[in-house]
Amino acid sequence: MSTDFLYLVEVLINGLMAGVMYSLVALGFVLIFKASGIFNYAQGVMALFAALTLAGIMEGQVPFAHIINAILGTNIHHFGWHVPAVLAILMTIVVMVGFAWGVQRFVFRHLVGQEPIILFMATIGLAYFLEGVGDLMWGSDIKTLALGLPQGGSRWLEDMTVGWGGDDFYGFYIDKLDMVATIVAILLVASLIAFSQYTKHGRAMRAVADDHQAALSVGISLNFIWILVWSLAGFVALVAGIMWGAKSGVQFSLSMIALKALPVLMLGGFTSIPGAIVGGLIIGMGEKLFEYTVGSLVGGATENWFAYVLALLFLVFRPQGLFGERIIERV
Amino acid sequence: MNAMADSYVTEDGRTIGGVLMDLREITLRFGGVEAIKNISFDIREGEIRAIIGPNGAGKSSMLNVISGFYKPQEGEVYFRGALRPAMKPYQVARQGIARTFQNIALFEGMTVLDNIMTGRLNYMKAGIIKQAIWKGAAEREEIENRAHVERVIDFLDIQAIRKTPVGRLPYGLKKRVELARALAADPKLLLLDEPMAGMNVEEKEDMSRFILDVNDEFGTTIALIEHDMGVVMDLSDRVVVMDYGRKIGDGTPDEVRGNQEVIDAYLGVAHD
Amino acid sequence: MFYREAGDFKTSYAEDNQTFPIKFDRYRYWLVLAVAYLVIPFMINDYWANAIFVPFLIYAIAAIGLNILTGYCGQVSLGTGGFMAVGAYACYKLMTAFPDVNIVFHILVSGGVTAMVGAAFGLPSLRIKGFYLAVATLAAQFFLVWLFNKVGWFYNYSASGQISAPERFVGPFAVTGPNAAPWAQYMICLVFVTVCAVVARNLTRGTLGRKLMAIRDMDIAAEIIGVNPLRTKLTAFAISSFFIGISGALFFAVYLGAVEVGEAFGIQKSFLVLFMVIIGGLGSIFGSFAGAAFLVLLPVALKFVGSDLMGWPTDLVSHLQLVIIGALIMFFLIKEPHGLAQLWRVTKEKLRLWPFPH
Prior knowledge:
The complex is a heterotrimer of chains A (331), B (272) and C (358). Chain B is of the alpha/beta class and 272 residues long. Chain B has ten helices and twelve strands. Helices cover 36% and strands 24% of the residues of chain B. In chain B, a hairpin with a 2-residue loop joins strand 3 and strand 4. The interface between A and C is large, with 49 and 51 residues. Chain C: It is a multi-pass membrane protein. Chain C: Its main location: membrane. Chain C: One of its GO terms (cellular component) is plasma membrane.
């Protein structure tokens, strides 16, 4: 096997791993979109917020310390304790459920029946709001998530593969964290599918996704389902936030990376969980491959736009995405 | 098809001219479903032509074929004597075919006046530069077409709501505004998709009067779909009856009324 | 009492079509223009020009542009920052390539260039609708910013990767470069705003405006009454981008003077202009001004109250600003989708009927 080919394979594998990350964020979009028709632009910021909250709780930060100090002239910042990771995750989940309730109660309950584009713009407002609240609560400095997740390249894999392509091939370099993320993503998807297939609330969720009116008429509470869905999306955001945050620190750029989930969805179709995953993998691999082959010729950093342009071109030829349902227009 | 003279005069003194639109052997499929099966009929100049039939008979699909929204897989459409090539709906509209919709399709964010003015779009030719300057060609054109639209507004008796946003109007008035928009285009052929659906008796009488007046005063050819048999029989010169995508009757209201197949379709005799 | 239409009978369709059908509104419009042209230029100083008036005027043009696309034609775009960058870089290239041509001409041509780029990115709008399109316009945003960052030709291979505006004159007065007087910067923006607003009003009051709104309200019905959807949408993209390109050119040449593309025209700029349009009012030219004024003034006011009066740290104030803007966006979408312009209309409606509200 030639070295070039092996490097290409390595690029592809790394792309796949990045794609898993995109898929994680995209999952949250799909959940909300299916159940309520809301295209939640804030999903990326939710991941950021969840990761910020988790880091803040673990560090024992005082929420809103900054603003309290500014108003009262005090100088508080930490409680002085450290919360164990598991407990902190549980507490973060509680915060995300509270957030879900608040979003439903104060925003989207008042926007029922509005056009999708209005809902979309509202979620952009929500993204700004949540970003501001996150910064106010926990400060805007970059935080590290010390969850004890494995870091760095996998030595074992490198040792296994070194020498495959001759003397100048040093083995596959694959981040251990990416491998963990892949396993977590698989577990998450499996449990989500199990939840929606085999539990009462899961079935109710699918009923709502299918037809609001019909779901109402058999006694399903739309309000409850929507809070549930936003909570689930919050949970998915937390998982994505942990993975991204452990990889590159909890900072604002996290919500921008999460924007990549949008083209992922345009590829995969907005209503399909398998679509979100396949779309994520395609985008992840595609952009790494493009950067590897073409990027160096045009100055690099093509990852900034490749996903969007790919999705754009794709949509022009197949507007419903890979797995979305074909839309027949009626008069 | 019964052989009729090229033009004739009806009992109430209107002149019906030659064939305006001729639909020949139209077949329309959605996937495996045949919505329209090999249907032919014609529409003559100046007449009121009705298409009736039970739910799901393919009436609306037929109208959508005429207005170019659906492309039939087989068959030909002749309009004013010439074969109509494959066209986009907006091109069909520019040929002089206007229509209303079963579920009202007005522009909810615009005023009644603006909605009706959209009916004149194809008569307004000022380019973008002229419109940007406004004074001169664009304004002149606007005023000329406004005058035309005001005549339609007077005709349909909706002067009082000219500046009201359409979204705020009740159902019956919306239907009337939609008719006004179609009329403003001075169509050669006016298609009405269930113009009286969801109306009470009084509103139906109003609408029937408007339809007859339009036909009488402007000589507009009208093709309409309607459920209410009584209304159809009173209004129309000739009727096409559809059932399960097939044509089962065609003729004057009296002829159609006596047709056994039509009676069966409406009374629900089992198909074999 | 004087805000009345009673007794003010219209006897021609031209009178009925006026922009300000009520006499009082007409007087106020002329008054605002008189103050803007005859009073402010003599009072303006560096702070007022740079903190408030010049950015307000430039953003107003961008907001008018986006409002034509989003408010009138219903196509949401998140590419405004990228299109402003096209205007800025086109202007820079023209200024450096043809130093003898008047800057006004350069700015207009920059608008034209942006119109073409905008129309090209508008092509998918025939197939893609709603938020699909919004995401698709992100492609324009990210791609254009990347392009201006990476391709040296656009910034004349300058070492810093920045572009900076050389000094250019209108008549004897410098309008760009470090020696431009605040009043001159203000005046050139004001003239462009006035012309853009009048043109935008004219384009939206007649045939084109109705076509755009028809597409927005129900594209299928629009097509069936004879509107060519692709052509209309592309026109909307082109006109919208024309205005946005002009604002980008002014933003670079007159306001900032030197620009680093990712910083000045990043995605945040797209959102900022979109928010101006939402808060000001979708489908209203006046709303574009209101929204631009609001979002230019808000940070200034917050900084004044937060930092100067209360003595809070600036990062805290900027976080608060995010929260407030986000909350306002949601508030307006829930309570008043037509934004400040509608609030203003409702107030006028009440004034008109006052003191007999029923």
